[in-house]
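Internal QA ticket QA-208
Title: Verify multi-chain structure generation after dependency bump
Assignee: T.L.

Test input:
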Amino acid sequence: MTEVAVLGVGMHPFGKFADRSVTDLCRSAVLAALADAGISWREVEAVAAASSRFSGGKGWGLNGNDVVEDLGSTGVPVYNLSAGCAAGGNAFHIGYTLVASGMHDVVLVVGGEKMPKGFIQTSGVEEATDPEFLRQRCIGVSGPAFWGMLCRRRMEDYGTTEEHLAMIAVKAHANSVHNPNARFRKPFTLEEVLQSPMVCFPLRLFEICPVSDGAAAAVICSARFARRKTTKPVWVAGSAVATARFDDGMTRHLAAVSPPGKTMHSEAKLAVETAFERAGLGPRDLSLVELQDNTVYYELAFPEEWGLCAEGEAERLVEQGETGPTGRLPINPSGGFQSFGEATTAMGVFQVAELTWQLRGDAGARQVPNARVGLGQTIGLGGNATAVMLKT
Amino acid sequence: MTQRIPVIEGLFAELPEGPRLLGSRCAHCATPYFPRSPVCHHPDCDAGRIENRMEDVAFGPSGVLYSHAVQNYPPPPPAKFDEPYQPYAVGMIDLAEGLRVLGRIATDDFSKLQGGMPVELIVDRLYRDGDGNDVVTWQFRPAEAAGHRNQGRRKP
Ligand SMILES: [Zn+2]
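Actual output:
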């Protein structure tokens, strides 16, 4: 395995763009990443792209082919990766392995999305064999209700308060003020969050991420190529993909098999632990984390499940501001999904771009001081998860 | 006349002994499944994978609430509900048979819901259809509210 560097990253700002296609968004992100890397489109040897369910891709998730046709058909191999909301992370991992294996010197990773309005809808499949259909028709349990159930249990187990949840949203938006790519850049007060409408008790509107349009891209390359282009590359320390384990406690169909005391997000835990192992690094080495905060609850649950802090400690870290950019465990200094909104399949690449800027010291007023090692993580439908560790 | 129509066939039944969820159990490793599964998915169950001897089992009615949330806003299709929309509670329920099942919680007093509380399976209306029939589904209600004096779970 050869060392792999992130040579350039780019992002199209997140928001709602009625007059721009997903191809437009991806082109912006890719051109920015190519310019950042200091290379031309002709130098890209392969493309790993996230497959979207919502936009482009000729209805088959062929979003990488759209990008290649748009930028100029050079005949490069294209890998379209589908993994629900983990697709961007999945595409990054496959791009990474293409370089690490020695197959290619320069690979483009891209994820872009134009999302329909409202919370993410079900697939539209109306078959009694489809778990999502059964959950919605027989019970009527939305995505936010799942997060609500997980969060409510945590409140009972650890004494998490409504204020703790709101503090995380306040922190996210305080960070987003300094991020020109974020969609929501207005600071929120604790009161504003606590007065936002209840979506699924105990979670409120400002504690759940909306959906957005957006795109991100990364140029990754071999160490040999990187040294020709830059004196300060950002390195991929470890990358991993995992799926959920059979003994996971989350009800992913209508039921789960359930001896007590198991993880509810086994795929994310497995991906992160594998990335740590491959990087030869541990929780203590982390300068910052960009994790998938579809809801504020995950900023409490994930750090504990991955061993970044002790069980039941996450609320104390939040209270003491330790998850802010200058704290002991900075989480989502970008502003996170809370501030960007989720452009589902773009998010894994979005995280790589944010981590890269942080590790270069280019993150401006949201900069984590002396950032050396960063972790990114996604989780998606089907029990898919990814983790990537970058280092200076 | 109002009829009771199951929202989906084959998921639950109203048996003489009471409402039950219709599932399966692997004859080799005893892993329970809901809904019914034609095969065993346990990664360590080699015999189950080859022979697939699955037995039909009726689960319920007793369980313990793991956690709940309130569906404060009307969920998008294919969910169905009576108008005007009334928020309802949903929960994960740990059944005595070792399954964690999703279901509605039939109560108007959400503040009484607490992890660890005993609940019991019922079959009740999900919505009334255009022909005036009650479309029913499996739900859970707090066991105390159910008035099960014989189970010794009532608070003094
Ligand atoms: Zn078995």
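Spot checks passed. Strands of chain B lie at 4-6, 12-15, 18-26, 32-33, 54-59, 62-71, 88-95, 99-105, 118-128, 134-142.
Status: verified.
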